[in-house]
Design goal:
By secondary structure, the protein is of the alpha/beta class. Helices cover 40% and strands 12% of the residues. The chain is built from 13 helices and nine strands. A seven-stranded parallel β-sheet has the order 2-4-5-6-7-8-9.
Length: 312
């Protein structure tokens, strides 16, 4: 999740809940500034030496520039990454308008042209993340045959269209139509916000063994652990959870403390606190009025004091 599941979050989360996630897909690295000549600052979020204590990460690339894609993907391979993920799911209008993210899904010939170029040249394995389309869920019907022609590691499907962003419900009926035609291992993504949601998806689509959790892990940081415990049979062969543990409140306070320690201006820190708080506030007790006070705070210390009071 852009701006949220970045290195700072992954480090704190892994300290509090080691092993809860198998791995994380990084916020996207844009190909518009992503070739071999780019300074390490641009890919700092996935530099291995900084990620040693974080959730294991798969770098995600956004764009359709073939030379830049190969350059950046192979640089990441040289850094030790055996997989890169191509983002064809981002719904942001300014991204999609340039045929990036889900904006490329109405153009299967462009998808094929890029895959034709990059697949033979990549040193790392390639996975992709898609939606059902950008304008229509039927766009996926022309994308699936393209994807089937390449040796992809897996395909993550979010069953909405880009124009929906995150509104409405995932179109599980359309996903049911798509799955038999898709020859790759499929990862489900979309509105998994409880252990019940996970169980519902696994029951309806038993052929899907892997689920990607996004906003649900910010609404409830304990969600991956709760899923593992409630559906233990699904994780019999998974890496066991680490011994360290924390409450949701302890995790939130530790994350906020990490934000305070950043070497940036207080204005940037309070923006980051509020960005996280819009989602993480759901994990803490308190009235909606008290939670809104954090968003209205103009002083960093005041915002943190309110959060700590609710986290007690």
């Amino acid at each position: 999740m852009q701006g949220l599941t970045e290195l700072l979050f992954r480090r704190v989360y892994n300290r509090c809940f080691p092993g809860a996630f198998d791995y994380a897909v990084s916020p996207f690295l844009s190909l518009t500034h992503g070739n071999l000549r780019v300074a390490d600052k641009k890919i700092e979020d996935v530099l291995p030496e900084l990620n040693a204590d974080s959730i294991p990460v798969v770098p995600q690339l956004l764009g359709h520039e073939p030379d830049e894609f190969v350059d950046l993907a192979n640089r990441l391979f040289q850094l030790g990454y055996g997989e890169v993920n191509w983002n064809m799911g981002c719904p942001m209008r300014r991204v999609a308008a340039k045929h990036r993210g889900s904006g490329i899904l109405p153009y299967p010939d462009e998808v094929r042209a890029l895959l034709d170029f990059i697949v033979p040249r990549l040193q790392a394995r390639l996975s992709v993340k898609v939606r059902l389309g950008y304008l229509s869920p039927d766009e996926i019907d022309r994308i699936v045959p393209v994807l089937n022609d390449y040796p992809l590691k897996d395909v993550t499907v979010h069953p909405r269209i880009g124009k929906q962003v995150y509104s409405g419900r995932p179109d599980l009926d359309k996903l049911s139509e798509v799955l038999p035609a898709l020859h790759h291992r499929v990862i489900y993504n979309g509105d998994v916000c409880s252990a019940f949601d996970y169980g519902r998806i696994r029951a309806r689509f038993p052929q899907i063994k892997d689920v990607m959790i996004g906003r649900g892990a910010l609404y409830n940081p304990l969600l991956p652990i709760q899923i593992r415990q409630q559906y233990a049979a699904d994780f019999a062969d998974a890496v066991p959870l680490g011994s360290a543990s924390a409450t949701a409140s302890e995790f939130i306070v530790e994350l906020m403390d990490e934000i305070v320690s950043l070497d940036v201006r207080d204005e940037a820190k309070i923006r980051k606190v509020k960005e996280y708080w819009c989602l993480l506030s759901k994990a803490l007790p308190g009235t909606e009025e008290s939670k809104r006070k954090v968003l209205h705070a103009t002083d960093l210390d005041a915002a943190l004091r309110l959060i700590r009071e609710m986290a007690k």
